[in-house]
Predict the structure.
Amino acid sequence: MKTLSRVLDYELKVSEILGILILVGIPYFVVGVIWTVTHTDHLSDMSGLDVVISFLGSIVCWPVLLFSNVCMT
């Protein structure tokens, strides 16, 4: 309990939190782009803004799409 309290009492600067978010976000974004580029079948029936929104949504939601793709096959 003392260790947990010590960890939770640790203070971070805003710049340190942003740095952690960037370090975590870059690999997440890269994997999302790779996933979206290799799974573009659903984009062929769309046009215009729908393609852009669907592409960006696929980048953000790649873990859910990966899980649903595994469960459907």
Observations:
- Residues 14-38 form the longest helix (25 residues).
- The chain is about 75% helix and 0% strand.
- The CA atoms of residues 43 and 51 lie 6 Å apart.
